[in-house]
Design goal:
The complex is a heterodimer of chains A (about 290) and B (about 350).
Chain A: H1 12-27, E1 33-34, H2 48-57, E2 63-68, H3 75-87, E3 91-92, E4 101-105, E5 118-122, H4 136-144, H5 149-162, E6 173-175, E7 179-181, E8 200-205, E9 210-214, E10 220-222, E11 249-253, E12 260-264, H6 267-287
Parallel strand pairs in A: 2-3, 2-4, 4-5, 5-8
Antiparallel strand pairs in A: 1-9, 6-7, 6-10, 8-9, 11-12
Helix pairs in contact in A: 1-2
Chain B: H1 8-24, H2 34-40, H3 42-52, H4 57-66, H5 71-82, E1 100-105, H6 153-159, H7 188-197, H8 200-211, E2 219-233, E3 242-256, E4 269-276, H9 280-292, H10 295-298, H11 309-313, H12 318-326, H13 333-356
Antiparallel strand pairs in B: 1-2, 2-3, 3-4
Helix pairs in contact in B: 2-3, 2-4, 3-4, 3-5, 4-5, 7-9, 8-9
The chains are: A alpha/beta (about 290), B alpha+beta (about 350).
Chain lengths: ~290, ~350
């Protein structure tokens, strides 16, 4: 562990500022709290918001898991995990069940989370209305007025044009019946996991200098219409490695003839299932 | 059977080794010394200090070497270091009127009290590559020293009440963009702070656009001065200011036409630019953009990008911009997969519709 820097890199005053922002965020679910985002030694857009939240939350006894696209071994996840191992010296894990704090980019783990776990999301664009209205002064007043007509019109236009809502990730949600929020670019497959989650979910956008929260057991609705209810992605395949028919699958091109393979995006979930399958086979053999 | 790609950790370690090797180059060639960078690449050092928001030539030189000359990467390195530094206090406002001037030119008056002083400038170099016979830098001293006090050119106009007054001290306590998020609408002090940290290339382009009809502001370079300024702080236990050192600054005051409005009579208005070290291009661009962003305050019609403070201020920072543009090379398998499924659905729908409709 590096001693040239404070524990978990940030100084204690900055951590206090972040924690105060987080308390406000938890008190007003889904509301984007502006915060004094610091310049981090990793590039903007690569998880600086999530890293700052993690740094403010980490204690010496925490067990940290970092995933990107559901996988622990993608280079950016490795790099962030390395960073915290270096500046905080905390234990790290790839097992969802063992982690007390999970920092994620673009996925929510398949393994259900518990009350004693915190999930930190890296958020590139915290403002769900940004693509519809680029001006911050304007979107702030839309939130203040809970005026989300723009988004409803956008979704309606999708239905008018395609027959269904053509948003597949970063699918907007209404938190606790009040604030429209971006779930970060997770696939809409993961949206139902936000609703009533026992784990605290925190969102950090470093470049945009905003943080927000979904406290445990908060109602989170994915926007939809009565006659066009919200639906998640489904596959005709099962995972080629573990056989799961209920996890989010990544498509992998395995040769230059375009042969495809579908595997779990959550690498820990997939590995656990394969280990369990091997163990039950061995048990069955031992019993026979 | 396919196994998910593993080994990110080892790949990163090897990549760092390759980078170190590439940065150093041929070990038979001597490594650049920081003093060489500080002295012989002083304009690069100035830019890195300016956009890195840290006046430290040694650290800027170190960052430039570590970044293999990629100035934006060097700026990033310096910023990431700066963010860890404790804050002891704030300096008194810098007194640029008391600058020990090394260069000072005005585009508005032929002669000015104190005179026009070219100083070390590339302006009249003719840009011919000097193949191996670069002159050794020795300059004969002037016959007489520059006058002690050099009044600001704009103060001359001020006496005639032809230019808007810039009253010191009537502003609120300025925000600190490195501690507080940028909020809109931003006041002028905050805007200037943002522009000061902003990318020189971006500001140059924005400034250029105001000269080409996008927010025409009829600018004149009232004065550009470069030289050394004392930095004063007032420690609480002393109660009076003491000088803690001097820094090199380039200041630009633009004069812009204004036809009156918002209850203000026709007069010249000001645009302001300030840059650490010798940063004339940056200071001039900053002054033009500062002026164009004052459109709301002066009641001017805002129709150009350079007048739109959300557009300009949100996109000046090259550390933010570089990170976010380049984050696209991170994996996006999951969202791409989601889009792929969606597109297949849409394509299938389009095919069905095509077969249903007889040609």
């Amino acid at each position: 562990m590096s001693t040239a820097y404070n524990f978990a890199f940030l100084d204690e005053n900055t951590k206090r500022m972040l924690r105060r922002g987080l308390l406000k965020a938890v008190a007003i679910p889904g509301y984007q709290v502006p915060f004094g985002s610091r310049e981090m030694p990793l590039p903007y857009g690569w998880g600086t918001g999530g890293i700052q939240l993690t740094a403010a939350l980490l204690g010496p006894d925490d067990v940290l898991k970092v995933i990107d696209q559901g996988a622990d071994d993608t280079t950016n996840a490795v790099n962030i995990r390395r960073f915290f191992a270096r500046v905080a010296g905390v234990a790290t894990t790839e097992r969802t069940a063992e982690a007390t704090l999970i920092q994620t980019r673009h996925r929510i783990p398949e393994t259900p989370l518990r009350e004693d776990q915190v999930l930190v999301f890296q958020v590139p664009e915290p403002e769900p209305l940004r693509t519809l209205e680029p001006r911050e002064a304007e979107t702030r007043s839309l939130h203040a007025l809970a005026d989300y007509g723009l988004m409803h019109v956008k979704l309606y236009e999708d239905i008018a044009r395609y027959g269904h809502i053509a948003t597949s990730y970063d699918y907007p949600v209404l938190v606790d019946g009040r604030y429209l929020a971006s779930p970060s670019p997770i696939p809409k497959f993961d949206n139902p996991k936000l609703d009533g989650s026992p784990a605290l979910m925190l969102f950090g956008a470093g470049r945009e200098k905003r943080l927000y929260a979904i406290p445990p057991y908060t109602r989170v609705e994915s926007l939809a219409f009565d006659d066009h209810p919200f639906e998640i992605q489904r596959w005709e395949h099962v995972c080629a490695l573990c056989g799961s028919d209920e996890s989010y699958l990544d498509e992998v091109v395995v040769d230059d003839r375009g042969t495809r393979l579908f595997v779990c995006s959550d690498t820990d979930y997939c590995a656990q299932r394969r280990d369990a399958a091997v163990a039950s086979e061995e048990n069955a053999e031992a019993a026979a | 059977m396919y196994v998910a790609v593993k080994g990110g950790e080892r790949a990163i370690a090897r990549s760092l080794e390759l980078l170190a090797e590439a940065r150093r180059g041929d070990p038979a060639v001597a490594e650049l010394e920081l003093a060489q960078i500080r002295q012989q690449l002083r304009l690069a050092v100035a830019r890195v200090m300016q956009e890195g928001s840290l006046y430290d030539e040694e650290l800027a030189a170190l960052a430039i070497r570590q970044a293999a000359g990629d100035l934006q990467e060097a700026i990033f390195l310096l910023r990431a270091y700066r963010t860890t530094l404790p804050r002891f206090g704030y300096s008194e406002p810098l007194e640029t009127a008391a600058m020990r001037v090394r260069r000072r030119v005005s585009g508005t008056f032929k002669d000015i009290p104190g005179g026009q002083v070219l100083g070390p400038t590339y302006d009249y170099t003719q840009r011919l590559l000097e193949f191996g016979n670069e002159a050794i830098g020795v300059c004969a001293p002037a016959e007489q020293p520059l006058p002690e006090g050099m009044p600001r050119v704009l103060d001359l106009l001020d006496a005639e009440a032809l230019i808007e007054r810039a009253e010191p001290g009537d502003d609120a306590e300025p925000a600190d963009l490195t501690r507080d998020p940028l909020m809109f609408p931003a006041d002028r002090a905050t805007r200037l702070q943002n522009l000061a940290r902003g990318d020189e290339g971006f500001l140059l382009g924005m400034a250029y656009s105001t000269q080409r009809g996008y927010a025409e502001s009829h600018p004149f370079a009232g004065e550009i001065r470069m030289g050394e300024v004392d930095v004063l702080i007032c420690p609480e236990e002393l109660g009076f200011p003491i000088a803690i050192g001097e820094i090199t600054l380039t200041e630009c005051q633009m004069i812009n036409q204004f036809h009156g409005g918002n209850g203000t009579p026709p007069q010249f208005t000001r645009g302001y630019g300030l840059s650490m070290g010798e940063g004339e291009r940056k200071a001039m661009a900053m002054a033009l953009v500062d002026r164009s962003l004052r459109c709301a305050e002066l009641g001017e019609a805002a129709h150009a990008p350079a007048q739109d403070q959300e557009f300009v201020l949100s996109h000046t920072d090259n550390v933010e911009a570089s990170g976010f543009v380049q984050h696209l090379k991170l994996p996006h398998y999951v969202d791409f997969q989601a889009e792929l499924s969606l597109l297949r659905t849409l394509a299938a729908q389009a095919r069905d519709t095509a077969t249903e409709e007889p040609a």
